[in-house]
């Protein structure tokens, strides 16, 4: 990949023409689109970007200027002849910690105006709701950690939000940063070809998504549920909702509890617990009279 540094030392990913090629695409072209949602990434490995973000719908949206991607290489802000960005942890222990003065210089180079997020396993879990909130803003600055992490003082000084993508540890924050960017960019208007698909996907209403099927109608002895072939749109909508509720209850009790606290009718909960798949799939459940 050919990198063209900008005036500030970062790398910008802007408009490009999408074409078949055996060579890596140059996604560093200037200028960026003024006013577009922007992801600013501070990383020791700027060559990791755009990665998968340069493909498919997010890559097309990047090419069309629906969002901007900038990377700031942490290494040039390192200290001394060897541009050291880290040092041993205070109090002893294994590993190395990114220095506060180095990260502070990189953050100042990245510039103000965007919320700053540090990808960290100790952060709050990333959710669809947080992705929607970020998509409605101007963008975000992401800190990709390495080694044992980043000096706490610089995180406090810049009021950095810590976000986790799961209860596990990666070798660095670059993959996690791409997860956050992908989940957020797809919510920006015009990025997805069919915005209506956002309304029915997992977590859109606090539930997991219902099962999906397509042709052939019969495959390896397994048939598409008849209700989906019935043409009865009301029955199909009921089936999909019921299946979303059932899957959420079985697979994600934590989501089901949160959903139940805000929306669930206790009578509906009993139906989900006791009704058979057959009765749920092919006949309507009587509603209890309002009291």
TrEMBL record:
Gene: trmD
Family note: Belongs to the RNA methyltransferase TrmD family.
Organism name: Paracoccus yeei
UniProt keyword annotation of Glycosyltransferase present: no
Subunit structure: Homodimer.
A single Gene Ontology CC term: cytosol
Protein name: tRNA (guanine-N(1)-)-methyltransferase
HAMAP family: TrmD (MF_00605)
Major subcellular location class: cytoplasm
GO process terms (BP): tRNA N1-guanine methylation
């Amino acid at each position: 990949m050919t990198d063209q540094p900008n005036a500030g030392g970062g790398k910008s990913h802007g408009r490009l023409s999408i074409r078949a090629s055996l060579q890596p695409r140059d996604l560093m072209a200037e200028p960026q689109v003024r006013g577009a949602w922007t992801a600013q990434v501070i990383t020791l490995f700027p060559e990791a970007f755009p990665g998968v973000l340069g493909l498919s719908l997010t890559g097309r949206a990047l090419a069309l200027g629906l969002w901007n991607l900038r990377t700031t290489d942490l290494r040039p802000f390192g200290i001394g002849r060897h541009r050291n960005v880290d040092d041993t942890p205070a109090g002893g222990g294994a590993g190395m910690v990114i220095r506060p003065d180095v990260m502070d210089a990189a953050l100042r180079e990245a510039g103000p105006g965007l919320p700053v997020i540090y990808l960290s396993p100790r952060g709050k879990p990333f959710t669809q709701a947080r992705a929607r909130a970020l998509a409605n803003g101007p963008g975000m600055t992401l800190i990709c950690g390495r080694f044992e992490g980043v000096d706490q003082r610089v995180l406090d000084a810049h009021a950095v939000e810590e976000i986790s993508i799961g209860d596990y540890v990666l070798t660095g924050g670059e993959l996690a940063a791409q997860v956050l960017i992908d989940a957020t960019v797809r919510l920006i208007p015009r990025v997805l070809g069919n915005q209506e698909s956002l309304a029915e996907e997992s977590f859109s209403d606090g539930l997991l998504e219902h099962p999906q099927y397509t042709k052939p109608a019969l495959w390896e002895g397994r048939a598409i549920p008849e209700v989906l072939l019935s043409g009865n749109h009301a029955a199909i909508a009921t089936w999909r909702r019921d299946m979303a509720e059932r899957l959420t209850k079985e697979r994600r009790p934590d989501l089901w509890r949160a959903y139940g606290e805000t929306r669930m009718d206790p009578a509906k909960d009993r139906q989900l617990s006791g009704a058979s798949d057959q009765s749920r799939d092919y006949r309507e459940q009587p509603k209890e009279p309002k009291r």
